[in-house]
Design a protein that fits this description.
800 residues, alpha/beta, 21 strands
Amino acid sequence: MSDQFLPMQSSSGSTQLSPYAPQPTWSPPSPPTEPNPGVAFGRLFEAMKRYKWPMLGVITLGIVGGAVAVRLVKPKYEVKATIWITSETPLEEKGGPIRSKELLNSEAWVELLRSYRISDAVVRKHALFVRPKKDSDSSAFAAFGLNDRYAPGKYDLELDPRANRYILQLDGTMVETGQLGDSIGRKVGFRWAPGLRALRPANGRQIAFTVSTPRETSIELMDRLGVRLPDKSNFLWLTLQDEDPRRAASILNTWIREYVAVAGELKRKNITEFANILSGQLQFAQKALQDAEQNLEGFRVNTITLPGEGAPVAAGLESTRDPAMSAYFERKIEEDNVRHDREALEALVTRSRGQAEPLEGALLIPSVAQGTQGKALGDLFSELYKKRADLAAAKKVYTEEFKVVKDYTEDVRKLEQETIPQRIQLILAQLRDREARTAERVRTQTVDLRQIPTRTIEEMRMRRRVAVAEALFTTLQARTAEARLAEASTQPDVSIMDSAVAPLRPATDTSIRLFGAATAAGLAAALALAFLLDRLDQRVRYPEHVTKDLGLGILGTVPALPRQRHLQSSPESVAQVVEAFRSIRLNLSHATGAADGPVSVAVTSGGAGEGKSLVCANLALSFADAGFRTVLVDGDTRRGALHSAFNAPMNRGLTDFLMGEQPIEAVVHQTGHERLVLVPRGSRRRRSPELLTSPAMVQLVKELRSNADIVIFDTPPLAAGIDAFAVAAAASNLMMVVRVGKSNRRLASAKLDLCERLPIRLVGAVLNDAELKGEFQYYSYLEGYDVEEEESAGRLVAQN
């Protein structure tokens, strides 16, 4: 807003501003601190407009980089092939000696395909470990090979067709030289003998190539191999990408052929090893059968003349005589039964003594019930039951003292306590005797059985050995024959369904995507650059820079006038500026209490060229228009120019009064406004900074405030020295002018920190030269509501 013209209302159109009682806790208004969803996008948009040329440069670089990448990156061709994996019936269902189902599971088939056993073979067959720097030299490496030991690295082959010689260099060091047509690189492990026809296109120049290890080349090749084996599927799908479609097809076809050959080799190897194991087991079984037959033959020859058991029976019988074995076991069982019955009867007699169990249980013991004594014991119990019944019947008729009752009672007692127990004791004695006799017979038969020759058992053992060895030999003989037959007729579990064919169109033409990605990356980098530059910019760009970084409330915003001269004095522009200073005047009067009494305020900025003098002049005019007796003091004793704006003399000003050369009446000059007077800066003085800190400055402020409602001091920038601090300390109030897009936040913040040590009250900040759009659009005013008088005359004040 500096170096612009502002309208000044005439005195006839001014009105007195109604005073408002100031609130103790009032503070200048500031933008809301709540996050605004549109602020970030608005700031980014403003940053994009501000840094449009750097952004355009970055975007251009992205487009150029995309175009270069499109030329450098070659399209990729993709070849495809299909392999069928056979799933046969398991071994248990076929019954053969070989595990005939697939050699590996689904995951293992993929791992086998990616194994170095296969990839290294493919790399060696196609000589992929050698890479010429130029594609035109590929024909010279058609028969290139490596020995087991070689030296990888970067090679240069220099050809001299005139001398018919070559020089081979490794990393700049010569390793071999020789005649053209001979083998090249034998000292470094090459098997390479290119003919003169193959080297003819390269005659007279240098062939650069790189030799890497097959394993490194295999890893790189496997990264380009795509393998897909769907779940529960027998189809293995393969894809390979390469810049050369024919080379890709050739490599993939070699890969699948090598894969089928290795799978068949692995299966034959498994079956061959199994057949060899069976052959060794068959030889062992044959020898074991021969040894068993020889042992059985010798045993029978040695025992053929030995006598048999109880009869002239040939030795080595398969079993002993049945009557002897039957008699022994019968006696043994009989002994066990008699012992068990005797123990049971003894236990019954013991329990019956305590009346725990009746003696009738003896009739349940087999040895007692089946003998003659058992029958007699049963008769005694029958007689006992009959006597008990007669006794019970007699007791129903007679008393206990009757003779018949006594006789029956005595008979029952004798049977229970004498006759039956004696009979049981007799039976128990008979059982003990029978048990002893039976045990003796068992012991006698045991001795006899021990004399039975163990030849039968030994013979049976030998016969079993012969039978087992014969069965094992027969089984292994059949399994070995099956294994040899399976070895001769083994087929691999995989077969080629579709071979790779070189395509005519590339699978991935990345030119468009690459160009788009480069353009998008350039655009993203440009946005990031704008955002970064906006973040790194120390100039005041947004209201938050003042409220948060500087800690000042915003008193108002002075809009920037249009750049076109004919639009600067348009009614809309004039109305916006007038309303802006009215808003500043209102906020400042309440912030300083100007409505209640005379106040003084110093106006400064962080650096030069931020429009503080313009704000002072027009703010003073606004106060004067509102009816305030206003004094405008040019406190910039070094470069002040307010006298030019109001057509007042520079001499007889502030410095002249401070030096004591002029009285106060002489330094106060009238302006075009009846309520506005001006104190110019005065004559230039070397000691002007010291004069501003003198007691005369304080006395001047007191005298001006006694005759005015508000005193406004235009001071130098804070970065210019102590002038602004001295004037602000005398005025007690300080207002900052911050020019949007120019004021340095770090400088202003550092200078404002010094004010905390001085008796200075920071009343707020005025944003100058702000474009009323973006975040500053909320500081604009509605058009059509400006106040005008008929036949009102306006004047313009220019600030240079």
